[in-house]
Write a structure and sequence with these properties.
This protein has helices spanning about 15-20, 45-50; strands at about 5-10, 25-30, 60. The protein is an alpha/beta fold.
Length: about 60
């Protein structure tokens, strides 16, 4: 049986990304500029988080 892959969304810090990965996340979602909604972080922080993620973990940018 194949193990499910899980994406954790609305990651807001390098620390949150690290915890999600340690707990088994296969991917993380980062929320960029949106007209509204929770979890929006600035581009500089998105870059910092994305650079901290190991290459075996997928990253997704959610934006409008």
């Amino acid at each position: 049986m194949t193990k499910p892959r899980v994406k954790i969304c609305c990651i807001g810090s390098v620390e949150e990304a690290t915890i999600a990965i340690e707990l088994g996340a296969a991917a993380i979602g980062l929320v960029g500029h949106m007209p509204s909604g929770p979890g929006i972080i600035d581009d500089e922080l998105i870059g910092r988080i994305a650079r901290s993620v190991p290459p075996t973990i997928s990253t997704f940018l959610l934006t409008s």
